[in-house]
Amino acid sequence: MTGNSREPASGWRRPTFLVVAAAVMVTAYFFLPLHLFGPHRPVLSWTVVVCGLALVAAGLLVQIQDVMTGRGGTRPACLIAGLMCLTMLLFSAAYFVLARDQQEFTGLRTRVDALYFTVVTLATIGYGDITPSGQTARVMTMLQVLYSFVFLTAGATAITRHLRVQMLHRRDRRSGGQRS
Hints:
With 180 residues, this protein is an all-alpha fold. It is built from 5 helices and 2 strands, in the order H-H-H-E-H-E-H.
């Protein structure tokens, strides 16, 4: 067996791990006791959201820095993608909790509605079927848009750069270091 025979195995392990990790996170989102949060516990609710987003932002910044400095030995593409998924689920959970107050959202009733609204907001589509009608929901939606512009865009850029550099290295190895 040569060293090259291992490449396909590691090639499928990373995406498989990422899919499994995303499935675990989404499953956890649907089973977490979100009823413990909400207007009856505003300090706890905001603390969890802010700390969660701050931890994810810190993780993203570390991974982005690793990509930009070319630090080896890390798997930034998988970690950044996982942190991006976690970001979406944090916002989705916050929207679901906010929607328990009937004045905050129009059309958002379930966790699927909250996840849908998060993705639609992230994609800047805005169909209008779910709308933030309360001040807190509007602030949270603006926070998601700003957070996405700063952290998720930087993360996506870092993933793209990392993958491009990896492809160039593979091409150089195959051609024996000779560029055409």
